[in-house]
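Take a minute with the sequence and C-alpha cells given here and flag any C-alpha cell that looks odd. Thanks in advance.
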Amino acid sequence: MNENKLTALLSLLDDPTPEIYKRIENELINLPVSAIPQLEDYWLDSKSTLLQERLEQVINKIQFTHVKNEFVTWGKTDSQDLIEGAILVNKSYNPNLITDPIRKEIEKIKKDVWLELNDQLTALEKIKILNHFFYNIYNYQALSPNQPTNWDGDIGTVLSQKQGNYIIISIIYAGIAQELGIPVYGINLTDSVLLCYIDKNTSDKDKILFYINPIDRGKVFGRAELQFVIESKKIVNRPKYYKATNNSSLIKRLVKHNISVYKKLKLTTHVPNFKELYKSI
C-alpha cells in the first residue's frame, strides 16, 4: 500500500459512520507487521481520541493476524517444536514478547542435562537425569489448579518464576526432552497431562516403554498404573489413552486452558483470539 493511500485511509478511521469505519479497518488490518511503526507515528500525531482508540484496535489485529499465521504454519510442520508453540501462544496476547531470555533459559537447562547424557544410558536413566536438573536443580513446579492466574501459562513468566500450570510445565519438560533427542511425548488422556517415553529402537511407532507424570516430579510408571488412573476417573477405558499424541495436541490443551482461566477471571479481552488460535490448528 502506497503512503498516500495509507494516509487517506487513516484520516477516515474516526469517521462516525460504522460502515465506513468497518471498511477502512478491514483494509488496514491486512497491512504487514512492518507497517506498525508508521501507524504508531500516526497515533502519536493524532489529536482524536476516537482515532487513537481505533488505531490501537487495528494494530492489535495486525499483530494477532501475524501470530496466527505463524501458528498455522507451525501446526503444519513435521517437527512442531513445543517451545516455539508455547511462545506463539504467549505472543498471541503479548506480541511484544522478548523471546531471547526464553531461548537462553531453555538452552541453559538443555546444556546441563546434555553434559550428563551418553549413548550407554538406558531410557530410565536419561529421564532420571532430566528429572534431577528440571526439578532439583532448577526447581520447576506446577501451581495448584485451584488457584488459576492469568500468567501461569505464559512460557516467559513461567521460566522466570520456575512455576506454572500443569500444562505449560509438561510442555517445557517434553520440549526440553525432545530437543535433547529424548523421545518424550504427551498422551491423549482426558483432563490430565501425562507424558510417555517412546521406544525408538522398534518399528512399532506406538510402542511405549513407560509413562511420566511431569506434575509429580517426573515420576515414572507403567501401563497398569495408567489403567488405574483411567479407572479412577470413571471414564471409558479407550486404547487411545495409552498412545502418544502429536505436539499440537499439547499446545491446544494450553490454549483451551487459557480460554477457561481467562473466562473464570473475567478477563475476556483475549478469549476471542484464543478461540481463533484453537480452531486454526
Remarks:
- The mean pLDDT is 92.
- The chain has two domains: 3-76, 82-280.
